Amino acid sequence: MLDYDALSALAAVLRTGSFDRAAAQLGVTPSAVSQRIKGLEDRMGATLVLRGQPCAATPTGARLLRHLDDVALMEQGLARDLGTPASPRPTVRIAVNADSLATWFLPAIARVPDMLFELEIDDQDHSDVWLRKAEVAAAVTARATPVQGCDSIALGTLSYVATASPGFVARWFPKGATATALGQAPALVFSLKDRLQQDWVTKVAGQRVALPAHRIASSHDFRRAAILGLGWGMNPEPLVAEDIAAGRLVAIAPETMETPLYWQVSRLSAPALAPLTRAIRETARKMLLQSR
Description:
CATH superfamily of the largest domain: Periplasmic binding protein-like II
Shape: elongated
Low-confidence stretches: none
Largest sheet: 6 strands, mixed
Distance between the termini: 51 Å
Strand content: 15-25%
CATH class of the largest domain: Alpha Beta
Radius of gyration: 22 Å
Number of strands: 10
Helix content: 40-55%
Structural class: alpha/beta
Number of helices: 12
Mean pLDDT: 93
Order of helices and strands: HHHEEHEHEHEEHHEHEHEHEH
């Protein structure tokens, strides 16, 4: 049997970032927290916490944290089934892409007040990696094939439109979005993982084009940069629909890019996460494009 007092100390250190704050949260001394974690590390034969500012989990520490979260979720589900008083709200760790977070995801999880959420932001083509490493209980991903031990549920499609300010388009695309113009006009990219702009250019121009680009890892600032004329980029249509209607942004070409999204959830956690999954599916049905 694992020592759940020690696991609680581990979770407190990793979630507060320090032994002192963890001790204050648990109502014990920092020395007691340190002793509990040292005993757990001895039991596991591995380092669990990387001491620093803030403290961080090793892969083994992250896996134990996920285990504790799974137990808390199952206990909440059991209490719900038996009609007994619920334990403290469990923490659910989810990997989600920034554009979903900026458009439809927050309204979904706001419908589930009896859970706490830790969101790991990653590209939709890579968020499933968090599931593969067993570091999250669920993920919003562009990959339909279920990760081992998970169920995959189709949510709908997030549509992207290539947008820029009217002044930017007049300056850089006077003859339209040609390969030559796209190779000169500054693009906006979210991160090194972001392939949307390049994929759209290949689709529109019929060839790969080397894109000069600004890197801006924030969906809202990405949109604002386009409005200010810093560059052009692929923005989720729900995020910029009002800007297009108001003339603050224009589409630089009619072609769009559609990204299908899936909710992948660990089968172990799925029963306890059923209320969350229901909220995710219902919100996505309203806010994402659905196949006919």
